[in-house]
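Study this chain:
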Amino acid sequence: MDDLTLFGLIREGDREAFKTLFHSWYAPLCHYASHFLNDDEQAEEVVQDFFVRLWEKRATLSVDSSLRHYLFRSVRNHCLNLIRQDKVRQLHAVRLQEALLADNAPEEYTLSPEMMLKIEEGIEALPEKRREIFRLNREQGLKYREIAEKLGISVKTVEAQMGAALRSLREKLRIFIFFSFFTKKGKRE
């Protein structure tokens, strides 16, 4: 059976055709993705995610020429998007670290880039209102009373939300407590 016929069956919801496609192309696509990402595990995640999306959107997808070309182009685009997102996260972490250092952080200590990324991920995972309160306090330097006035809530609510935010961040970062997440300047290896 040719690839376009196989894809036509997949569009109609044929699970066996999808399994055939998956088993035929999974390994080559993982190998291809690993060239972009230099990480076999991450490459597998990208390819698995691609196949999930392919199945979910099968009815609306159109492959007119080469299924092989479509598969490889799609995986390449997923990899490039992931690389782009990683670069944005890294840039944000560097900027956050620079801001902390500019805010009279102890000169002999800096947060490691990995810790900065984990902190930012933890902040982004907070519920929307809690995240807003946390950022107003920690990034904009507003006092609890100022935040309460700005958001039209009580100071007690701000205190409770900040406490919950800090507990959540501590929980997400507890694994790093066992590691030295502060590195002395000039002593990086």
Observations:
- Residues 67-102 form the longest helix (36 residues).
- The CA atoms of residues 30 and 70 lie 15 Å apart.
